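Minimal example, chain plus flavin mononucleotide.
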Amino acid sequence: MIDGLAHFMNHDNPPIRPQHKMAQEIKNLVIIGQTKDGKTFRPSDWAERLCSLTSAVGNNKKLKYSQFVRPGHTPGGIKTVTVNPSLHKLDPLAWKFVLDFAKEHGLQFEAIPASPAYAAIAEAFRARHSTRKFLPTPISCDVIAELLELASRSPSGTNAQPWKVYALAGAAREALSAALLERFNQDATEKPEYDYYPNKWVEPWLSRRRKLGFDLYGLVGIPKGDKPRMKEQSGRNFLFFDAPVGLIFTLDRHLAQGMLLDYGIFIGHLIIAAQARGLASCMQTAFADYPDTVRHHLGISEQELVVGGLSLGHPDPEAPENRIVTEREPVEAFTTFQGF
Ligand SMILES: Cc1cc2nc3c(=O)[nH]c(=O)nc-3n(C[C@H](O)[C@H](O)[C@H](O)COP(=O)(O)O)c2cc1C
């Protein structure tokens, strides 16, 4: 049996593993229509029949197989059924049924790793997290340009490419940080560019926001209610959390609010590309709280809306704030699957 498959066979609940190991484990389970003594399994349409149990009727009134349980065949022509491991969470009964079927009939199993490209991308997604303390190790302009070039491959409505980036390092970054921190420490306020957070937080978002705050302040040892230290920690936003590179993103006001969607995709591409390149990041809308200072300091015209900023660099492995692990709701909690 292929290493790693045992838990599919022996556990209804596969063991929870550290997230960074998940990518190596993305494997489809393939049931092969051959019994352990090498005989071809009959009836010849067993795979289609098994898959039809999790299929649905499509718009064209034809049977549509679920993406999680699909028929196929080996290069040698033996019928197979490929089971996506996500089925375990999405439909535990179907998962159990398919596995029991294979076990009862003595069919062979194989665990097929996803393609290397998918595994690498999945690894970057799973390993990325917001980093709030960076090492001073510099990053070359070429690397930043390469990441931005990759990010610019992201889609945008009518290919408008609404992004505009100010990449800052060294004295340029420090000067902006100093100006912003001074304003922040003076409790100065500026008219925010746009409503990012709601005026009133309600559940379930309120609890998620609170948890992040508790976790972050807890890790850096700030007791509840210690406002001066909480403010100091918030102020670190403006230092780009000591990152060697800070990016400021702007959007031309000739464009509409909807283009913030394109911007989100662009930044999403950028942070994943950075992760895959061995760099950490933290997206920050904190910079949009001081748009006048940012604009004045970087010589940006009123025509440009300050969307936010991004810290980029190598994470400090010793920093407690970088140990924060944020949770996610399971897919079925935010997705309604229809017609599968
Ligand atoms: C649009 C956006 C704005 C954010 N602004 C800030 C910010 O100003 N300061 C900060 O420390 N983190 C900021 N974050 C990071 C979020 O807190 C973080 O993404 C979230 O807690 C999930 O954690 P993770 O990124 O580690 O997965 C922002 C994230 C996004 C996507």
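Residues 129-130, 132, 212, 237, 282-286, 308, 326 surround flavin mononucleotide (CB under 6 Å). The two ends are 31 Å apart (CA to CA).
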